[in-house]
Each structure stands twice: as C-alpha cells, then as structure tokens.
Amino acid sequence: MGFTRSRFLGGKPSKAPLLLPFLLTVLLVGSQGDGGAMDNGATERIAEESHRQDSAYLLIFIMLLTLTILTIWLFKHRRFRFLHETGLAMIYGLLVGVILRFGIHAPQSMSDVILGCAVNGSPATLLVNVSGRFYEYTLKGEVGQGKGHQVQDDEMLRKVTFDPEVFFNILLPPIIFHAGYSLKRRHFFRNIGSILAYAFIGTVISCFVIGLIMYGFVSFMKVVGQLDGDFYFTDCLFFGAIVSATDPVTVLAIFNELKVDVDLYALLFGESVLNDAVAIVLSSSIVAYQPAGDNSHSFEAMAMLKSFGVFLGVFSGSFALGVVTGVVTALVTKFTKLRDFPLLETALFFLMSWSTFLLAEACGFTGVVAVLFCGITQAHYTYNNLSPDSQDRTKQLFELLNFLAENFIFSYMGLTLFSFQSHVFNPLFIVGAFVAVFLGRAANIYPLSFLLNLGRKNKIGYNFQHVMMFAGLRGAMTFALSIRDTATYARQMMFSTTLLIVFFTVWICGGGTTPMLSFMSIPVGVDSDQDNANSGALDGSQRRSTKHESAWPFRIWYNFDHNYLKPLLTHSGPPLTATLPACCGPLARCLTSPQAYENEGQLHDDDSDFILNDASVSSMYADVTVSTDASGSRTVNPKHSSTARAGGGVGSFDEGLDHELSVAEHEVAIRGTRLVLPMDDPVEAPTTVTLPPPPSPPRSEPHRHRL
Amino acid sequence: MGFTRSRFLGGKPSKAPLLLPFLLTVLLVGSQGDGGAMDNGATERIAEESHRQDSAYLLIFIMLLTLTILTIWLFKHRRFRFLHETGLAMIYGLLVGVILRFGIHAPQSMSDVILGCAVNGSPATLLVNVSGRFYEYTLKGEVGQGKGHQVQDDEMLRKVTFDPEVFFNILLPPIIFHAGYSLKRRHFFRNIGSILAYAFIGTVISCFVIGLIMYGFVSFMKVVGQLDGDFYFTDCLFFGAIVSATDPVTVLAIFNELKVDVDLYALLFGESVLNDAVAIVLSSSIVAYQPAGDNSHSFEAMAMLKSFGVFLGVFSGSFALGVVTGVVTALVTKFTKLRDFPLLETALFFLMSWSTFLLAEACGFTGVVAVLFCGITQAHYTYNNLSPDSQDRTKQLFELLNFLAENFIFSYMGLTLFSFQSHVFNPLFIVGAFVAVFLGRAANIYPLSFLLNLGRKNKIGYNFQHVMMFAGLRGAMTFALSIRDTATYARQMMFSTTLLIVFFTVWICGGGTTPMLSFMSIPVGVDSDQDNANSGALDGSQRRSTKHESAWPFRIWYNFDHNYLKPLLTHSGPPLTATLPACCGPLARCLTSPQAYENEGQLHDDDSDFILNDASVSSMYADVTVSTDASGSRTVNPKHSSTARAGGGVGSFDEGLDHELSVAEHEVAIRGTRLVLPMDDPVEAPTTVTLPPPPSPPRSEPHRHRL
C-alpha cells in the first residue's frame, strides 16, 4: 500500500460523488499543487489563482457561445440552411480545441514525488497533516489502474474538461424538459402507436443489432490483434444502447423552418424524444446486468431477467414520478389564485419541475426520464391553468435554457475532440461502429415501418422511411451517456468513436437534410392545417377507419382524460358535475372550478391549442361515424371534420373560425361518443345529438359507460 | 507530520479551490466513508448513495422555496404586509433547521482511525493507493487547527451546508445584476449626489464606527476574560465592513407596494445597491491589509495605503469592466439585426452579462461589483436596442433568478442557525454588535444628511432620516460576506452574530416598516408622477435652482451622454450627424442607425422610460431658465416643466401626453442648452428657440460648445 503523491489525469470516475454540479463548477480537479510545503497564505493564493483560471476557462465557453449566437444570426439573416447552430457550435469548439491543444503551451510545473504511506481504506474525506496544518481532501473516485503514472503534459486541457455528471445533472434536464413541454400534442397523439413502436421496440432492436455487430467486429479485432484491452459483450450492448439515442434538434429545426409534413415531423420528434428516455434506462440496465459470482461477463438468465426488471422498474418509476409532480403542479395552480402573481407562478412551476428531477434521483430513478414525462404532463394540464403571462414566461424560460444548454454541449463536444486526454481511436472499431450504427438504424426503421404499415392505412411511405433513416442524428444524449464513464479502455474507445459518429451525423446528415428532402420529394412548405390533404395517394375514408381501429386504447384514454382528468386538474373541459355520476355531486362541485361552467358556454376560452387538439380528436370520431354507421350523416360529416382539421394548426386563426370549430367539435364529439358504443342504446343517441351544445350535453354519457 | 484519517467537519476553508459551484453541487464534503477497504463496486455504490442523499437534501430546499411561494401568495392574497417573503423564507428555514437538528438522529458510523504518514506538502490532488486501487482525492482547503479532532455527531447537518462560495459566485450575481438592471434611473440620477455620499462616505463611516466600537467591546471582553480566541482590530474593521452592507429587498418591496415618496425610495434603493459594492471591496481591502513582517496586526501606514490602493483599484477596475461589457453588448445589439430573433438576443444578453462576472473574476476584480455596473449600463443603453419581446424576456428572466436566489439565501440563513456546526454565540459580543450596528447606521445617516441638507434645498426631512435609519436592514450580502470565511474563532463569532443581526433587522425592522411609515407621517400612496408636489413644505423654485447648482458634473455628463453616447450606442437620441462636428461627417453617418433619423421626427418611439427620463432632466434645465434668465419665459416655462414632470412616472400614459412631452422636451432642451452657456451668444438663442423641433435643432450646438 503506497501513498502516491501525483496528479490525477484523464480518466474520470464512473460516478462522481459530488453531483448535480453546475457548468461553472466542475472544471475538473483543483491542480496547481506546486509541490513543497505551503503555508496558509500560499494555499489561499493558490485557491485564488485557481478561481481566476477557472473563470477564464469558463469565459472561453461563454465567448464561444456568444460567437455562435452571432454567427447563427448571420446565417438566419442570410437564410443559409446547410449548417445548423449546433453544427456551428461544434466547429467553433473544434477550433478552440485545436488552439488550446497545439497553439498554447503551458509551462510544465510537475513534481511527481511518490510518497509511501500505510492506508488501508479510502474514506470519503482525508485530512492531511502537514507541519501541523490540516488540509482537507475529498474522494473523487477510483482511478483506472496504470493511470497514476500516466503524466499528461498539458494541464490546461485538463482544466477545460468538465465533470461528466454536469451533463447529466445540469445540461440535459432543461433540454429534455423543453422537448416534453414543447411537444405538439395533437400530431404526437395521432401517431402515438407508431411513435411508441419506434421508440421502444425500435431502440431495443437497434441496441441489440449494434451490440451484435460490434461484438463481431471486436471478436475479429481480437483475432487480428488490434485490441489492446478488454471488450466484453455487455460493453458492446452498452455501446449499442448509447448510440441508439437519436437527437431531434438539427433535423427538426430544419423541418420546422421548411414546414415539412407534420406526420413525418411528429414521428421523428416523438421517436427521438422518447428514445432518449429508453436509451438511458436501457444503458443503465445493461450496466446493472451483473451475473452472480466472479464469472462476470458470461450470459446468465437470472441476471438478464434482473436487468429487464431494472429496466421496467426504473422506467415506470421515473414515468410515474414525472407524471405525479406534473399533476401536483396542476392541482396547486388550479386551486390557488397564484395566477394573479405571474412571478410566483413561474417560480413555482420552475421549482416543481426541478423537484421532479431531484425526487427521481433521490429515489434511485432516472431524473432525465422523469423530467421528460413531467414536461409532457405540465404541457397537457398545468399549462392551461397558468396565466397568459406565465405561459409566455415558462415557455421562454425553458426555450432559453434549452438553447444555452444545447449549444454548450455541442461546442463542448467540438472542444473535447482535442482536449480529452484519453482518446482511443481504433480505425477498425470506428469503421465497424459506423456500419453498425447504419445497420442498427435500418433494422429499426424499415422492418418496423413494414409492420406498422400492415396495421396502418395511413402508410408511412418509402420516402418517409428513408428520411427517418437519414435523420437519425446522434447528439447531446449520446455524448452525455458516453462521456459519463471513460474509466476503462473499452469505454474510452466507445467515447472517441461516439464523438466521431456525432460529428458525422450532425454535419453530414444534418447538413444534407434539405437536399435529402427535395431528393425524396417530401412536400415542403406544408401548412400544418392541410397536412392530411397533402399526404395524398391514400384512400381517405379507409385510412380514417384504420385510425379508429388502431387507436382504441387511446380513445378510452381520451374519454377519461377529457371527462375526468382535465376537469379535475385544469380550468378547462366540461364541469365535473356533468361528467361524474350523480352520487359524487358534492365532491364534483367542490373540485370543479368556476371557470369550467363558463367553459361550457364559451368552450375553452384561453386554451386555443386545446380546442384544436380536441377538435382534431373529435373529427376522428366523426370519421368513424362515416365508416360504421354510414347513414345519412355521410354528407354532413366530412365537411365538419375537414373544417375541424383545417383549423388544427397551432398557428394563427381568427375568432370566427375558432367559434365555428367549437360548434363543430361539439357536434362531432357527441356523434363520436354515440359511435363508441353504437349498439348500446341506438334510441338514445339521436336525442343526444339534438341537445344544444352549451348546458350539459355529456350528462348522459357516464350512464352509458356504466351500461 | 501525520496522515490523519478522520472526518472533516464544520469549519470551512477560507477559499475553496473549486469555485463557482452551483447551488446543487456543493453539499459540502463527500462523506460516507464507511471505513475499511472498499472494492470498485462499493465505491460506486457509495457515490450513488451520496448522489441520492444530495438530491434529497437539495429537495428540502426546493420544497422550502415552494412552501414559501405558496405562503407568500396567501399573504399577498390577504394583503398581509407585516412579514415579507424573505422573512417568511427565514422562518421556514429555521423550522427545518430545528427539525434536522433535534428531530432526526442519524446513526453514527464513525471510524476515526488516525494513520501516520510522511507527507511534506499539500498538493491539489492526492492519489491514494489502497491494495493496488487508486483513489483520487482533491484538496478542499485548509482546516482550522484543532478542528481535526472535533468530531461532530450529526452528519446530516453537515450535508445541508453549502460551500460558501456558492453564495458569491452563483446566488449573489443575479440579485445584484437585477438591482442594477431595475434601477429607476430617473429618480436615481436626480439624487445621485446624495446617494453617492451615503453609499461611499456613509459606508466607510459606518465601517469605522462599528469597527472602533467593536474594538472597545472586544478589549473589554479580553479584560473580563470572555474571549476565547484572538480578535484583532482588523477583524473588528472587517466586521464593520460586512455589517455595513444594507439590503434593499424587504423595505423596498413594501415601499413599492405602498407607493412611498419616490425620493425616499430612490435614496434608500440607490444607497443599498451601491453600498453592497462598497462593502465588498472594503472588506477585501481590509483582508488585504497586511503589514510587512511577522508583526501582522499592528498599524502601519504603508499597509494602510496599500489597502486604500487595493480599494481604489478593485473598485474602479470592476466598475470599468462592468461598463465596458455593457457598452459592448449595446454596440452588438445595435449594429446587428439580432432583434429579429428574440431568443438569440436574450441569450446574447444573458451571456454577455454573465461574462462580465467571469471577466472580472479572471482579472482579479470583484465580479459582483462589475455585474452591478454592467446591469446599470445594460439598462441605460442596451435595453433600448432590444426588441420589445427581448425587453420583457430579459426583465422577467432576471426577476425570476433574483426571486429564486434571494429566497434561497434567506431560507438557507434560517436553516444555518441550527445546522451550522461552529457557532460561537458570545452574549457580550452580540450586545456590542447590536449597539455598534445601531450607532454605525446613525453615524452614517444623521451627520451626512445634515451635511447634504446644507447643500441641498430639497431637504431630507427628519422623518426621512428616521426611516432611512430604521430601514437599514442587513440581508443577503452581509450573510454571504460573513459565511465566506468561518475558519477562525473571530470569524465564527462574527458569523453567528451577523446571523442574529440579519434575523432581527429583517423581522423587526422589516415588519415594522408599515407602522414606522405611518408613525413618521411619510406620505403613502404617492403616485410617482406627483412626487415633487407632495414632498411639500419646500420652496419650489429655490429647490430647483439648488438642484441645478449641485448637479453640474451630472449636467455635463448628461449632455455628453445624450448627444454622443446614446446616439452611438443605441437607436435613440439625436443622430450623430447632428451632434458631431462636421469634420466627422462620414464616421457619424456610418455610426448613426437609420432609426435615429426617424427618432428626430417622432422622438424615441419605443423608449418611453427614456423620454421621461430625458424630459425630467430637461425640465430641470427649464427650471434653470427660470432662475437665471428669468425673463418673459417665466410664465411659459413652469407649465411645460410641470407637464414634463407630471408625466415622468414609469407607469402608463397615453399617446397624447407622450407627444406633448416630446414637444415640451425639445423646447426646454434647447432652452437648457442655451442656458448652460448663457453669455456666449445671447443673440443666437432666440433664433434657436423658434426653430421647429423635428428636423435638426441641435445642429448648431456643437459649434457653440466649441466656442
């Protein structure tokens, strides 16, 4: 046992004990041990000097971001679309990395004295007594063997290296929350089945395909003698999991600008948002896969099952926590008059959303996943309770946080290609990885699309499939997952390779999106209102009925949500007194907000996105009426439903259309409700239709449900 | 030299080498060294456990803040004014502190093995080799002697203790920036002389008075034998400096709500904003006071001079940096069309403001001070270049950050009373401190007010003075300064005492503000428009001429600012082509924004605060016209000037008034300009007056200046 006095460089501990560290903080490792005994003043001076250097290095990043912003402006100003801001941030990061690496040479002031000392443990805190003075040291983590002697020459590069946990605990949460909060729910829910298939099944397929291919490559490399360290099958699977997380930013920014078909947008966005969550949980489950005994890299059914259990447990736990905090926030904002004070409201919203993350982490779940579902819940319920001022504030706040975090991560990525000290670039592995990533993505998209198209009448065309294949960029999440642990040889090789994959996909695939879209003749400039009309080549009514069939769990959920959850959690929707059975009268009255009664009259006043959302869903029901009941309403319905859908965009629309929509919605909603259980009491249905919309049309509905 | 394996508790290092740590991060010290040899898995599990605990403890704070927000809402809802949100946050913090301290007992798992080891230095990073595994330790700082053996029982309390640098590098900057950014410039500049006097001279007086009184007390305590450690005169002065920083939040929140006299508001707000900066720099200068040789606590002229030099250097350096980054931001926002993209603009604004802090810290200046002046500059120039959307966004962003940071600090203060491990409550010292703080404040306010009243015709009445005396609360800045260094006995005693002072002033003085105002018969419910009319009992015209006389350096500055800086840095003001001498024509044309020419026509369209600001200053000039030139314009002028002032509030006003003001301003501005140099060419003056306002009235001005 020896007490080694040396410097720790490069390889980071797999999980730093100091966590949730802010971007500012963790310019890794204190440094400046000038050696020799120091007195109090000297220690202080060193601390001060360190503080100044840290500030200076952080300033580099701020300047990088500033530069990026100005260049982005120039690009947007000149309508130059081939390079997205994230790609730009990476380029600037690269340049600064090159300068730091090759341009500036810091004087070496190393003193690698190794002192022997008898210690038989590694406590969290050490007190070192030097000539009667005590210095405190805290445990950073374990260092990979052999690292201790590896002396890097450039200290500065080490200083611009952040603790990888920064990415997970500071930078990713706002990005992921923003993704959830800005999800366009209407198109998302319309394609929910396909999105879930791509995100869950697809990511698992991709993970295993990449893992298997990489295992083949690695085995080959072992035979050829190209591999300098261990690389197990679990490592391959882990690699598969981390590179299966696709990043929405670049492609979707372009899609948004070009107004690409909304269904394609929804599929890609929904997939990339959800598969981030899947990839995180999947990778942590793979890490948790540890067969009993010493034989730690063989296959074992029990361990496999345990990993699967971990996956399910962590995912559902995070999901539940996210939803619960979202619901609590909705309840709090509903039952207090906090909306009179937008500042308080915004602060509460921010704190509650943040507490989701902390709560999940404290419970051992995954904060980032919880935050995603919290974001979706907040958007679905809480957003409706906020004052208009707070709605703007929260949106803008998270938009800003997202923007800063994203560009920070990407510029850091560029920088890290040169500043990271333990790169392992293995040409064979890199080639293998590119092939595997390509095939993994293909194995996700094409077979799943084929299967989905069997059930889906609104077929996902080949051009859509090619674009989805092409648009599978890897970004922030992949980077954060791969930099989290770079302690072993295998992980270092993975990290370096991942970095190259991110560069390639962001620059080549991201930059090629616009040409790709025109090459694939994807309709561009689509107003989201006319989306369905433009996806042509499909039989309208047939598609609609399919949608009905495939969406039945969603429909049950929609009814429940619309009749009970929304009235309970928000000011919108029908009053609970109308939807709950009569026996719950007093409770319903107490839980229904006064606004809900007014809503009945003027239907969801300040909640335009929701009107449209509802209208869209309702129009689906109306379509159903066409296909099954196919009576005289045939001629009336399509008009209504198309009107409803035509106004379905989130963009601007005038008051007149709004009112028309409300009426249309009510009518079709009633028809739809009738349709869900068409054989129950066909006599009662017509009376429901003739009821005037405002007072309490869905009154009889719960009764029917209970029939 | 021994290698002590033990736990570090309580006393914090004087300057942590890891800095700028986010609130999340630095739940101080890793802990959980369960002793004994650990394998890799165990280390990881410990790190994970630590992460979970940290999240849980941070969650406590988030919950505290949430609770505070809800209670604040209740208070505001019920118009309950005796307890401000900060006071409330402290109470909740106290309660949680009590629960943590006495309610929950964590099991003790201590292993205080002390291991001997020969080390002759304290490097920044230690690598400990335990059975072939390397563990990395980083230097936290030096520990006060004797601390090493002091074993505290409650580990949990230690876990909820943040690194004090968090306050300085994360929480204070947004608070201070917001103070600068939200400064009501009109009233501030009107009282600039008095504010500077209170902030600079007053704070220095207060610091020395408190220091001297405390030195008396401490000497007495030494004689009585009540003092257990060293307490030098520099310590007393340091104490004086930190408790001289008054906090605006509580009182000003009430003032704002009650619409108290704007001059009183401006005096208090201006003083408390600026004296924070003075107190920081003063305290660091006192720390820098180190006489040569070993005789480190005697008086020495050279060291004193050096300290004074440090004060001047740090203050002016920080000031310059803050202003420079503000100006750069203004230029960037002016010369790019960034305003088309509010998100980019807001991000740039945020990053530039943050970079001020980092730049100042990197240069060895004080970031917090730089940020204050940056905030003022941004408000004065950049704000006018921002798009209306960005103006809202930036205001709301910093409002939110300020709110969160402030309440976090105050709830932490409450908590720390019980959770801090090294409190030294010395009754004599506490009594002495309260007396000293009271007398120090009195020595600041009353003599200075007397002196200022000699020069000021708009006398600061006794009731105003009493309120200013009473409203000298101590808050976030005092706390942050005192917790920054709690290594020595003297500093611990100061910290504990400071905490009590903050509690007392926030609860008693803060809560007593409303009764105090009515007792002192301070006019409440004053519309800021009619401020001057209501401060009655003063001779109007006499006051005006005094204002003219006392404000001459400000007037020169105003002319320079209005004619050159504002046109150069913003879209408002007269075009530079009109104000610069003809020889600079091409340069002026290139620097003047197209909007400036339009401004000439419709004068400062989207910049209402500025119109009013200008109008107010101009009306001052108009008054001057009355007192010196006192000709026929006597009857015309007061009307104009009173109109201008009547519209001077920042509140709402209609377009008509706006236009009237513009005209009034133009007229009086011209008269004012004439007045500055009344004997130059009295013949030309009337022709200037008769010029129609829009095209280019100040054209001839530079010529006159050069006469």
From TrEMBL, chains A, B:
GO terms for biological process: regulation of intracellular pH; sodium ion import across plasma membrane. Residues 630-644 have a biased composition (Polar residues). GO terms for molecular function: potassium:proton antiporter activity; sodium:proton antiporter activity. Residues 1-33 form the signal peptide. Pfam families: Na_H_Exchanger. Keywords: Antiport, Cell membrane, Endosome, Ion transport, Membrane, Signal, Sodium, Sodium transport, Transmembrane, Transmembrane helix, Transport. It is a multi-pass membrane protein. InterPro entries: Cation/H_exchanger_CPA1, Cation/H_exchanger_TM, NaH_exchanger, NHE-6/7/9. Gene3D superfamilies: 6.10.140.1330. It is found in: Cell membrane; Recycling endosome membrane. The chain crosses the membrane at residues 57-75, 87-104, 166-183, 195-217, 237-255, 308-332, 352-376, 397-418, 424-443, 489-510. Belongs to the monovalent cation:proton antiporter 1 (CPA1) transporter (TC 2.A.36) family. This is Sodium/hydrogen exchanger.
